[in-house]
From TrEMBL:
Binds 1 FAD per subunit. The gene is ahpF. The chain holds residues 210 to 513 of 513 of the full protein. Residues 2-288 form the FAD/NAD(P)-binding domain. This is Alkyl hydroperoxide reductase subunit F. Disulfide bonds join 130-133. Belongs to the class-II pyridine nucleotide-disulfide oxidoreductase family.
Length: 304
């Protein structure tokens, strides 16, 4: 039986495991794929104190740091059940199960994709999902933002300060973003907003994005826009489908308190899977530390 079982091996889970092991707690990490979203990232320039790194390199560093401690890493395993019994049981898709006194949920999230031709081919070559991360790569260039919700319009405002021009493409007949954000976007000289636009294809020259095609859903006309970058902002989906007893927001994010604890005492959560305001590596790691210290506090208050 573990004292702390971390589900997920991204930045949040790695940080949580190190903090738990440093308290002398019997710690395990069960993860589908160690490294999480970072494995899919090319350049990382906002992991403070490391001026520039690459996803696979950061994953290797994370793993090396975790392995410096007595942490049991179980890779290639997906959790599909959380059962509260005498402590907790995590059920795995393989049919096996793991017991622990506390559970730290760190299963992260995934960006919702457009699922159109060219998207996968040009991912990281102009197709981007994170304006905070990749915005500066498009300095002085033309970009599109797909999605007119809050995150799309926030991204457009953010990018408009860096890039030459932003075209926002919204599928619906109107934007869903807050009015104040829409007003701000409209007041900026270099943002165009196109509604009723169904993005149909990412166009590139083999090495990078050169444009996109979309159809006007009202007229049926096809259009081509030349640009260097496409920021997809149609939602971040937390990996919580397998949880049925943990309290979630209406977007499916795990609700945590300021110690990272969920509605179930002894079950903590950290990183992108939670209702944290922003989703970044440095934030995920910080919340991993918080949740782990929260679990430690919880354990020392249990009857011997
Ligand atoms: P994740 O990294 O999502 O890790 C989740 C972990 O849980 C993985 O190990 C996964 O395999 C595992 N898992 C999921 N479900 C299960 C399950 N049921 N059972 C077992 N294991 C499971 N942030 C920055 O700060 N800077 C950047 O430059 C940057 N660039 C990015 C570029 C891209 C393309 C993407 C996608 C994200 C980027 N981000 C960046 C965001 C950053 O990667 C995330 O905020 C961060 O990885 C979140 O960490 P996490 O540990 O919470 O979750």
């Amino acid at each position: 039986e573990f004292d702390v079982l971390v589900v997920g091996g991204g930045p949040a889970g790695s940080s949580a495991a190190i903090y738990a092991a440093r308290k002398g707690l019997k710690t395990g990490i069960v993860a589908d794929k160690f490294g999480g979203q970072v494995s899919e990232t090319i350049g990382i320039e906002n992991f403070i104190s490391v001026k520039a790194t690459e996803g696979p390199k950061l994953v290797a560093n994370l793993e090396e740091h975790v392995k410096d401690y007595d942490v049991d890493i179980m890779q290639g395993q997906r959790a599909n059940k959380l059962i509260t019994d005498n402590g907790f049981t995590i059920g795995l898709e393989s049919g096996a199960s793991l017991k622990s006194k506390t559970v730290l949920l760190a299963t992260g999230a995934r960006w919702r994709e457009m699922n159109i031709p060219g998207e996968q081919e040009y991912r990281g070559k102009g197709v981007a999902y994170c304006p905070h991360c990749d915005g500066p790569l498009f300095k002085g260039k033309r970009v599109a933002v797909i999605g007119g919700g809050n995150s799309g319009i926030e991204a457009a405002i953010d990018l408009a300060g860096i890039v030459e021009h932003v075209t926002v493409l919204e599928f619906d007949s109107k934007l869903r973003a807050d009015q104040v954000l829409q007003n701000k976007a409209n007041s900026m000289g270099n943002i165009d907003i196109i509604t009723q636009a169904q993005t149909t294809e990412v166009i590139g020259n083999g090495t990078k994005v050169t444009g996109l095609n979309y159809t006007n859903r009202e007229t049926g006309e096809n259009h081509h826009v030349e640009l260097a970058g496409i920021f997809v902002q149609i939602g971040l989906v937390p990996n919580t489908e397998w949880l049925d007893s943990v309290e979630l927001t209406n977007r499916g994010e795990v609700i945590v308190d300021n110690q990272g604890q969920t509605n179930i005492p002894g079950v903590f959560a950290c990183g992108d899977v939670t209702n944290s305001a922003y989703k970044q590596i440095i934030i995920a790691m910080g919340s991993g530390a918080t949740a782990s210290l929260g679990a430690f506090d919880h354990l020392i208050r249990q009857a011997a």
